[in-house]
Amino acid sequence: MDQIQGDVESEISLTVDDEEISESGSVCDETSPFGLFTEDVFLQIGEGSLEHGMIMRSFLTGLGSVAKYTNVVAIHKNCLSTLTRKARLESFQLFSEAVAEKCGGNANIRLGWFGGTRDEILGIVKHGFSHCGRMPVNGQSYGVGVHLASTQFSIDGALSSDVDEDGLKHILLCRVIMGNMEVICPGSNQFHPSSQNFDSGVDNLLAPRRYIVWSANMNSHIFPTFVISFKVPSVNGS
Hints:
This protein is an alpha+beta fold. It has one domain: Phosphoenolpyruvate Carboxykinase, domain 3, CATH 3.90.228.10. The protein has five helices and nine strands; from the N terminus they run H-E-H-E-H-E-H-E-H-E-E-E-E-E.
């Protein structure tokens, strides 16, 4: 699983930093369930591409036993088709450099899953995060901020996803600048770093399941990269 995570992170860093679009991408017609996604927002990644295979394997691995009931219907990529979204990527890269300089050369960029409604995900990609998101479904909140699930626990993002009118759930795969992380206790009301030494929060330093990005950083330290659309009969636990 760690090898898959490393491969996916490397692949995403290359394709997004170079602002490339997969040659195997395709555009859906307006009558498809993904018409809203492909309206100057996302480009669908072809099933035969390396990107598609890596991301699908990572997503399914993180679902645990639920994976065998799950059908990945489509994977779309943030196509950076507007100046605003290109500017967000440039901002993310600048903050990555700033955090790296502060942290001794390593911005500690991770991948995190964020589940929500289809409209919520579209809004985040188009306009950024407007609030700290819904309360996590698996246990207590760990501070006030945007909560993302680590790569190995896509199940947590899936649990936060709602079924749309086409019977699909949607989850974002984001790049996240974590910098120096501090442990946040369950039920904490913390909403900013406890000191200048820290940049973000986690539930466990050695094996984080949850990443916490403070609200002040939610639109500079999180960059939505892919959205996975999937069907599953029921997702009611890990």
